[in-house]
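S1.2 Input.
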Amino acid sequence: MKIARFRAADGKEHVGKIIGNAAYELTAHCTTTECLGKLLAADGQAFERLAAIPNEELKAHGLADIRLLAPVTAPSKFLAMGLNYQSHAEESQRIGVAPATSQIWFNKQVSCITGPDDAIERPEVVEQLDYEAELGLVIGKTGRNIPRERALEHVAAYFIVNDVSARDWQKRSPTWTLGKSFDTHGPIGPWLVTADEIGDPHNLAISLSVNGEVRQQANTAQMIHDIRAQISYLSQVMTLKAGDLIATGTPSGVGVAMTPPQFLDDGDVVEIEIERIGRLSNPVRATTMLGAQ
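S1.3 Output.
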């Protein structure tokens, strides 16, 4: 099932399942429309229950008549992996990034989350705005010390992530958190696709284009550390809670590693496609700092 949050023509926000060119409204069967992660936290079987509701019982909205929203808005954690494709690790080494000797993880603060077609802001304090196409996943079952062979049982669904990165700010902070967490620098969507519909998450074509020019093109089979290893590794440190988000790393082709570097600017449009999930598109908008709020 593809499950989304959306705003209808009347301005009301809903949860719905996406089938073809329609969104079938599930709002009456949900405890909240604010965050699909909260649905999972309250009921680990929520997606299975919603998928079973017959479409003929649900109000249909045309996709052209709605505005898709970020599917998860308030996870307890948004964790992202660095240098997880060999091609990206190699291009990073060429520009002076030390090779990884283990899994590398950092936080994207949850306030960075934004949705499909929302603007990626380029504040005037950011000079090196970059993109990263990634497969994302949402945890569906809380766990700690999860065995590798049971790890995929804890995944509820998959989605697309643009791990937008302010490279100049990233270089200033050894944890990378500041450069990864500007407001609007976490586009996710366009919806969640449940794990049963994805099948093998390690065989998905992934690509990114800027203004129609392909910059990244790979397959999730090329991950150095697969999703089982990622979940098991993280859960040795912290409890992974239902609704938490994980971004699994990006392939080569990022702007900072191009010759010369190609950073995002006002008016650019970034589009990411992942097989069996869909497309996530976001424009870039320059913004002026107006002072403390």
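S1.4 Remarks. The chain has a mean pLDDT of 96.
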